[in-house]
């Protein structure tokens, strides 16, 4: 901090600060993405405004769509069966576009708890629950949840008894996964909309529970 | 595929002329759920979707996920044809990690393409 610093400081120290985006190097893939984007715009394939809108639309997806699918599965056993067979088709029934990549629902039961990860990158059911949280993409989560899932779950506040088996789903290739939590006890009187509000993102990843 | 269900009768199906899956003509095994398999230990460059930590390990076919263009080919701008069968393979956690701290019932399921799997005698 220099002496001509005119706000209310009577002490000399440097503040820790977060580096500006430009302070870290662009990697090859970022440069390639920027270059391809600029070329497509230059060639008139789409406009900058289209690109912006698309990014905004992707960023705007949250876990609400996935929560609606889960709540419907809780109230409608037929829907649940169809969802377990084909999430994308079941979602379409209630007007949700889950995209072309096949999504597989993995259902929690009293004896089984599911959790999802992508050890190779960051595969995630984005069209149903939005962009993955940073921790989902972190090396720590990706490497640890496959080898010590119970320890990782406990760090999220999810402590499972020994008699509940933990099943980790690593979406290494062409499928995406969505955890179907069990319907919590004491929710018999709730309607579908109220039920959907109980379904948090982390329950559909499987690091949190609402059902035990 | 249906000839090898239920899992009790699991095993490799012989290649047959006119068989449903193109993979058979390429000589890959077609595995029914319940078949015991070993992930190939190969170390290859490229866009490989078989994680290192599973290579060389034994697991059991949990289900058949379907057929998909081969991502190892797609990654280089090629068509990935013919499509390859993708399996959901279940591994026992204590088999993967000798020091695994948790229930012996804990499992991991990963999606592995047919050309990374060999059948193991059960």
Number of helices of chain B: 3
The CA-CA distance between the termini of chain A, in Å, is 53 Å
Spell the H/E element sequence of chain B.
Answer: HEEHEHEE
Q: What proportion of the residues of chain A form beta strands (DSSP E)?
A: 5-15%
| Number of individual domains of chain B | 1
Indicate how many domains the architecture of chain A comprises: 2
Number of strands of chain B: 5
**Count the strands of chain A?**
4
Mean pLDDT of chain A: 93
Spatially, the strands of the biggest sheet of chain A line up as: 1-4
Structure described in brief:
The complex is a heterodimer of chains A (212) and B (122). By secondary structure, chain A is mostly helical.
List the helices and strands and how they pair.
The complex is a heterodimer of chains A (212) and B (122).
Chain A: H1 28-42, H2 48-60, H3 64-75, H4 77-85, H5 87-93, E1 103-107, E2 112-117, H6 126-129, H7 134-137, H8 139-144, H9 149-155, E3 165-170, E4 176-180, H10 192-198, H11 201-205
Parallel strand pairs in A: 1-4, 2-3
Helix pairs in contact in A: 3-4, 3-10, 4-5
Chain B: H1 22-25, E1 36-39, E2 58-68, H2 71-74, E3 84-92, H3 93-96, E4 107-113, E5 117-119
Antiparallel strand pairs in B: 1-2, 1-5, 2-3, 3-4
Write out key terms for the chains shown:
heterodimer; A: 212 residues; mainly alpha; Nitrile Hydratase, Chain A; 2 domains; two-stranded parallel ribbon; two-stranded parallel sheet; 11 helices; 4 strands; 42% helix; 10% strand; B: 122 residues; mainly beta; SH3 type barrels; five-stranded antiparallel beta sheet; 3 helices; 28% strand; globular; disordered N terminus
């Amino acid at each position: 901090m220099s002496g001509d610093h005119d706000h209310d400081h009577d002490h000399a120290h440097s503040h820790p600060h977060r580096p500006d985006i430009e302070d870290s190097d662009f990697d090859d893939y970022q440069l390639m993405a920027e270059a391809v984007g600029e070329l497509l715009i230059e060639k008139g394939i789409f406009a900058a405004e289209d690109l912006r809108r698309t990014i905004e639309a992707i960023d705007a997806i949250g876990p609400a769509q996935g929560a609606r699918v889960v709540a419907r599965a809780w109230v409608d056993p037929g829907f649940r069966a169809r969802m377990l067979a084909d999430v994308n088709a079941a979602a379409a029934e209630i007007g949700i576009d889950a995209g072309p990549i096949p999504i597989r629902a993995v259902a929690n039961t009293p004896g089984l708890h599911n959790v999802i990860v992508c050890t190779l990158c960051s595969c995630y059911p984005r069209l149903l629950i939005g962009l993955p949280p940073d921790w989902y993409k972190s090396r720590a989560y990706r490497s640890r949840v496959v080898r010590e899932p119970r320890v990782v779950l406990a760090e999220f506040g999810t402590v499972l008894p020994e008699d509940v088996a933990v099943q980790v789903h690593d979406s290494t290739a062409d499928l995406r996964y969505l955890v179907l939590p069990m319907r919590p006890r004491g929710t018999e009187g709730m309607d579908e909309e109220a039920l959907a509000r109980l379904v948090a993102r982390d329950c559909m990843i499987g690091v949190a529970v609402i059902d035990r | 595929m249906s000839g090898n269900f239920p899992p009790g009768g699991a095993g490799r199906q012989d290649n047959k002329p006119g068989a449903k899956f193109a993979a058979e003509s390429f000589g890959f095994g077609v595995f029914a759920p319940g078949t015991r398999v070993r992930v190939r230990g190969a170390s290859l460059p490229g866009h490989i979707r078989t994680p290192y930590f599973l290579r060389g390990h034994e697991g059991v076919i949990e289900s058949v996920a379907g057929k998909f263009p081969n991502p190892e080919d797609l990654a280089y701008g090629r068509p990935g044809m013919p499509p390859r069968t993708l399996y959901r393979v279940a591994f026992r956690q204590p088999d993967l990690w000798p020091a695994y701290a948790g229930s012996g019932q804990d499992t991991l399921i990963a999606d592995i393409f047919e050309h990374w799997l060999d059948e193991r005698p059960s």
